[in-house]
Amino acid sequence: MKRMTSTYKSKVEKNRFAQPKFLKRSAASVLLIHMLCLSVVPANLASAAAEPTTQTTTTETKDAATPAATAPKAIPTVESLNLAVKSAVLLEPTTGEVILSLDAETALPPASMTKMMTEYIVAEQVKQGKLNWDDVVTTSANAAAQVGSRVFLAQGDQHTVKDLYIAMAIGSANDATVALAETVAPTEMEFVKMMNSEAKRMGMTTAHFANSTGLDIADMPQGTQPADGKETVMSAMDAAILAKYIVTDHPDFNEFTTLQSYQFRPGDSGRIENLDWMLEANASVPNFKAYAYEGLDGLKTGHTNAAGNNFTGTAVRDGMRLISVVMGTDVNDQGSRFVETRKVLDYGFNNFEIKEMVAANKAVEGEEPVAVAKGKEESVAYETAGAISFVVPKGADASGLKMQSSLEAGLEAPIAKGDKVGTATYTYQAAGMAEAQTKTVDLIASADVEKAGWFKQLMRAIGGFFSDLFEGIKNLF
């Protein structure tokens, strides 16, 4: 072997110590990493524990459910019903879906359908413990002076809240109604303020109450009329909203409204007959069986010369309750309001149903788990907190169902199963229905996520740091 020349040896020695620039840069990077690991990691951990943001992530999924093979039946038009009314509406109370509407936003005289608000307030007073059904009410001069439908109370007469409530609910007694109003408030006019306040709270946009009964102002006793002279008005839609509150907040309402008659006083003259001819129980009553309607259990009639014949009815079939309102039927025919109500209710029960489109505790298909900071797991799956149902044409499928989710950003462990992590809004446009229905449900964590220990958080922070660093280095080339 040849001995190495001095020149060659000199080149080799020089090359050993004169490394390329990129190797020097790598060495500097490694040194920097070591320094950062010793001094910067706590800052990274502090960053990981930063205040979570309030931003949300929104995604939209079309056709959120698999369509069925059946096609919905054709729905007849409202015009084909030939309704002889000034206005009408049909409402499903659990979804708030308006199934039928005919001039439903027009404010009209409601007559004794006004008493539904008095019924609601009195029932609320009992529910809150401010009144008891057995409390005794003494009739005032104003109550005794009422005209129209009444149970002929005399000033000083005493009856229980329950007796007067039934007289109001089934006999539409104006004197009993005022006696109750003056029990809740110091005067009927003070009670009317409560009525109008409740109307606003319920979202009744056209309703204005002048008294507790629905009488025209001219028929009120002298000295008790409102100074502004504004008559009681209410749209069919507002009447349906009021009825919705009654059946929802006081589901025992039908304990009173289904009474075919009530013995208010001893003797035949003291018996009150229910003015609602459509009660299902009337199917065996010769005079009323032509009007009796399956499942109907309320709610309130109304009649004045100005209003014509009105009726807010409600019935249940196959687990679905519907609320119908007809206003301004033939003033000379009490039965006309029930004939028109049958058309409206039949339209609803024959053509529509409530269908559960999304089950409770259902995983949202096609969605990624939501990120969780500081957890043993870095994400958690989620599901719906409750079921979603819509009013649909009979036989309709879920092919028109769409979903939009909004997930919380900055979630941090610990998280318990059932904690809210976002919301999902489902929209359903049924064939043959004018407007889409929308419902929102909470999205909840499907499992617990425990908080990770400090060492795991440290290693995760270091891993994240290295990942970011090398990603940055890679991007240099």
From TrEMBL:
Peptidase S11 D-Ala-D-Ala carboxypeptidase A C-terminal domain ranges (all copies): 352-451
Reaction equation(s) it catalyzes: Preferential cleavage: (Ac)2-L-Lys-D-Ala-|-D-Ala. Also transpeptidation of peptidyl-alanyl moieties that are N-acyl substituents of D-alanine
Molecular function GO terms recorded: carboxypeptidase activity
Coiled-coil residues: none
Location of the region described as Disordered in the Swiss-Prot/TrEMBL record: 50-70
Keyword Transport on entry: no
Listed pathway(s): Cell wall biogenesis; peptidoglycan biosynthesis
Top-level taxonomic group: Bacteria
Keywords in alphabetical order: Carboxypeptidase, Cell shape, Cell wall biogenesis/degradation, Hydrolase, Peptidoglycan synthesis, Protease, Signal
A Pfam family: PBP5_C
SMART domains: PBP5_C (SM00936)
Keyword Cell membrane found: no
Gene3D superfamilies found in the cross-reference section: D-Ala-D-Ala carboxypeptidase, C-terminal domain, DD-peptidase/beta-lactamase superfamily
Stated role: Removes C-terminal D-alanyl residues from sugar-peptide cell wall precursors.
Family of the protein in this entry: Belongs to the peptidase S11 family.
Name by which UniProt lists this protein: serine-type D-Ala-D-Ala carboxypeptidase
